């Protein structure tokens, strides 16, 4: 406990927010590996308020604080002690610890912290406390919900990170919902500040925004992110430019904005945000890069009809496993292989929320199949209009619909549940032309497709 309060008073003297925020983290540290145990043992439920008050206000080394502010910090550290007491009991396996009680205590800490800003004049330099408190409230809430499910016979695994935020289980999340409400209050505390920029709590806006996004995704309440985005856009003139915030805040914000746009099928905006997130991501953060590429790759394919190179995916084994068979089928123009690859990876793609987007790449597979039909159709001679002499040859530009139909039948070779008829083939051809993936027109009366002599399949060299 001594090290916690020593850091607290040092942070108050020098006005260093990250050090102050570290005092609220209910974890051991490399510098003090027994911090939680010593913090829990320094007092008991009967005297904890008096003991904390002594450490904050009356100790010889205590920093001098206004009375109301000091009392607010006493309440905060009393709540922290209650939380740590439960966490230590859980770690010791005595059977007396409870994750729900730990969450309730830490939520009490967060509520006192919010009141410190609204009622007791906590200064702007202390804003890192909000993001640290919100982070651990969210983590303890997830663990509490997980334990509740386990007791009810519906076990879950506690984890954290980009992937778990996007791909979370959405059964009973009572504590996490409470955490979301509390973090939303922290977001409002930062957003509503009207102080001068140098003294503004708005420097904490993106850390709390990112926590809200993470929590809403975990709750499968992505629609709630719209309210956060609207609030940010409305206050854009008063918020410092995003580029002035730490890169970690920028990267995380761009990632979630990209995923939100991706889920709303705004693939152009999604690609732009995700590309910026990838550029901001630390070069050694392979897991985070993988998560960004999980959505950036499908968005790029939909926008540009271009597949990524094998070299791009090679450093990410998970992406290689789920994407490579699908992309190989697209390159080969094999509809049967495409359907098989999509079916085999379905559960993982659904979990990552990219299944429907990748299903749309079937059109690219079909484009490549029709391109192969065009190449197989061969060449035809060109003749001089005056003399009738052969002057060269060009690829056939008039191809019978039956040839495309035959190509589809070959592509589906081995599939027993697929029937291909002429009307369906015409429909596919019309869609290709409409989407500008083929250039030409269908002459139905003659049963042929007339392709452009130059760039019949844009971007493919044919």
From TrEMBL:
<dbReference type="InterPro" id="IPR000717">
    <property type="entry name" value="PCI_dom"/>
</dbReference>
<dbReference type="GO" id="GO:0003723">
    <property type="term" value="F:RNA binding"/>
</dbReference>
<protein>
    <recommendedName>
        <fullName>Protein CSN12 homolog</fullName>
    </recommendedName>
</protein>
<dbReference type="InterPro" id="IPR036388">
    <property type="entry name" value="WH-like_DNA-bd_sf"/>
</dbReference>
<comment type="similarity">
    <text>Belongs to the CSN12 family.</text>
</comment>
<feature type="domain" description="PCI">
    <location>
        <begin position="251"/>
        <end position="456"/>
    </location>
</feature>
<dbReference type="GO" id="GO:0003690">
    <property type="term" value="F:double-stranded DNA binding"/>
</dbReference>
<dbReference type="InterPro" id="IPR045114">
    <property type="entry name" value="Csn12-like"/>
</dbReference>
<dbReference type="Pfam" id="PF01399">
    <property type="entry name" value="PCI"/>
</dbReference>
């Amino acid at each position: 406990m001594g090290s916690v309060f020593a850091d607290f008073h040092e942070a108050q003297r020098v006005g260093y927010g990250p050090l102050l925020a570290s005092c609220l983290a209910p974890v051991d540290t490399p510098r003090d590996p027994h911090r939680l145990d010593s913090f829990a043992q320094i007092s008991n439920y009967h005297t904890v308020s008096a003991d904390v008050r002594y450490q904050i206000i009356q100790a010889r080394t205590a920093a001098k604080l206004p009375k109301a502010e000091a009392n607010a910090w006493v309440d905060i550290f009393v709540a922290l002690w209650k939380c740590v007491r439960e966490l230590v009991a859980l770690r010791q396996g005595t059977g007396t610890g409870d994750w729900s009680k730990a969450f309730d205590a830490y939520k009490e800490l967060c509520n006192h912290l919010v009141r410190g800003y609204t009622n007791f004049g906590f200064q702007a330099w202390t804003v890192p406390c909000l993001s640290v408190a919100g982070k651990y409230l969210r983590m303890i809430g997830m663990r509490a919900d997980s334990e509740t499910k386990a007791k009810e016979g519906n076990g879950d695994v506690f984890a954290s990170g980009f992937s778990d935020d996007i791909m979370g289980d959405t059964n009973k999340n009572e504590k996490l919902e409470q955490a979301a409400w509390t973090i939303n209050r922290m977001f409002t505390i930062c957003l509503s500040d009207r102080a001068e920029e140098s003294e503004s709590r708005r420097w904490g806006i993106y850390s709390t925004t990112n926590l809200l996004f993470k929590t809403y995704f975990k709750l499968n309440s992505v629609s709630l992110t719209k309210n956060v985005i609207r609030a940010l856009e409305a206050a854009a003139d008063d918020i410092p430019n995003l580029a002035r915030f730490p890169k970690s805040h920028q990267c995380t914000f761009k990632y979630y904005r990209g995923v939100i746009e991706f889920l709303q099928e705004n693939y152009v905006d999604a690609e732009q945000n995700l590309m910026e997130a990838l550029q901001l991501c630390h070069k050694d953060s392979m897991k985070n890069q993988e998560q960004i590429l999980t959505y950036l790759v499908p968005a790029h394919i939909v926008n540009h009809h271009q597949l990524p190179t094998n070299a791009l995916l090679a450093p990410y084994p998970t992406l290689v496993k789920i994407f490579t068979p699908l992309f190989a089928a697209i390159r080969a123009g094999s509809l049967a292989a495409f359907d098989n690859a999509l079916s085999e990876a379905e559960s993982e793609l659904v979990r990552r929320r990219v299944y429907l987007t990748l299903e749309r790449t079937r059109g690219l597979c079909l484009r490549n199949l029709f391109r192969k039909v065009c190449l197989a159709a061969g060449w035809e001679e060109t003749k001089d209009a005056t003399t009738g002499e052969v002057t060269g040859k060009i690829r056939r530009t008039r191809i019978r619909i039956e040839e495309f139909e035959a190509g589809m039948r070959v592509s589906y070779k081995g599939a027993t549940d697929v029937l291909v008829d002429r009307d369906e083939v015409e429909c596919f051809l019309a869609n290709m032309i409409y989407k500008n993936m083929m250039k030409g027109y269908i002459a139905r009366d003659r049963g042929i497709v007339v392709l452009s002599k130059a760039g019949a399949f844009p971007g493919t060299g044919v």
